[in-house]
Fold:
Amino acid sequence: SQTIHQWPATLVQPVGSPLSLECTVEGTSNPNLYWYRQAAGRGLQLLFYSVGIGQISSEVPQNLSASRPQDRQFILSSKKLLLSDSGFYLCAWSVRGANVLTFGAGSRLTVL
Amino acid sequence: AQSVTQLGSHVSVSEGALVLLRCNYSSSVPPYLFWYVQYPNQGLQLLLKYTSAATLVKGINGFEAEFKKSETSFHLTKPSAHMSDAAEYFCAVSVDGGSQGNLIFGKGTKLSVKP
Structure:
């Protein structure tokens, strides 16, 4: 069966520090991968999605970036965090060409 | 452009009472619609989805939703609330007509269930 892992689960970082959140999917090949952010009272916002290795589409301009170095690995990064980057980050995957998302457990980022 | 509006950020019901969570959508293409549930500090889990096969969609945990094109609505219901239903519920619409998982989510409705 397929599983999705995200880490770290919780992160507290100072303003201006770098960020790296990792997501891996097991039990499937060629998944579509997604990063969503959930901020308090604002629902979920799609940040990035990827349909293949090295293929990243950005939905929202910001100081975050994403990379997909391997088929089932998706990384969310920042060189310098802002206070506004605080939130709950959710990785998700779907079968290529399908629209049902399976979410990871999330990573809660607090920027101080 | 697609959008989703969830009416009521917080709904409270008594155990055993009807649950009704409201969702209205806007879409320039025939929509694919979803309801997801999120328990505290967890990811989202798919409850059900509408893909034009049937207007009444049954999901997990006794939930169902009815697609009403004339009202542009996709409200989520459950006849009898259980304490374990307390969670946050998100309605979502597919951005591009359904071929990918690029979804636009509503802001969520937090459901409380009173004993």
